[in-house]
Design brief:
The protein has strands spanning about 70-80, 85-90, 100-110, 115-125, 125-135, 150-160, 165-170. By secondary structure, the protein is an all-beta fold. It has a four-stranded antiparallel sheet with strand order 4-3-6-7, with no helix packed on it. Strands 1-2-5 form a three-stranded antiparallel sheet, with no helix packed on it. The protein is flat and about 65 Å long.
Length: about 170
């Protein structure tokens, strides 16, 4: 992840360039394969190693997100207590503390009809803020190998001042 928040300028054209190097033992701009992150690629190729194919081999995403965004969302469900434990990390890339409205909602992953919602407001200072919350679900549908029933937890994060928002969801089972 490369966060370019502090570099991007609003209301002007921004250019993003990506350079891909695929050196071998012969250097490219003074860099050899041994000097770059390379997983299991080696030269000469041998059994158990990856072929040195180069290029971008993983996914690439460019995301436009508000200054206060959901950085991470994690949940664990306890079928004995019917409680969903939630940990969410909000990231504030602005220089000021922001007043946010958070909504956690739980729904079956397949149908989407909301079973439970929790709303509250909080201040989010610059940097990362960990939010912990619990939600109780009465008589949850248990996950089973023959019936892999899943729920979806969604966090919607709304900035009260400018109404910008960010949202993230995760699936889980009891």
């Amino acid at each position: 992840i490369v966060d370019i928040t502090d570099i991007v300028k609003s209301e002007v054209v921004n250019h993003l360039s990506v350079r891909v190097l695929n050196p071998t033992n012969e250097p490219i701009d003074s860099m050899t394969l041994k000097q770059i992150p390379r997983q299991a690629r080696v030269i000469p190729y041998n059994s158990g190693a990856e072929y040195n194919c180069g290029g971008i081999t993983g996914s690439v995403e460019l995301m436009l997100v508000p200054l206060i965004r959901v950085e991470d969302l994690f949940t664990s469900a306890d079928s004995k207590s019917n409680i969903i434990k939630i940990e969410a990390t909000l990231h504030n890339a602005s220089t000021k503390t922001a007043h946010q409205h958070l909504t956690f909602s739980v729904a079956p992953a397949a149908s989407g009809e909301t079973l439970k919602t929790i709303d509250f407001e909080c201040d989010v200072p610059r940097g990362d803020t960990l939010i912990r919350e619990v939600i109780n679900i009465e008589k949850p549908h248990l996950w089973d190998l023959n019936n892999p029933y899943l729920y979806r937890l969604t966090l919607r994060n709304i900035n009260i001042k400018d109404k910008s928002f960010d949202e993230q969801s995760v699936r889980f089972g009891f």
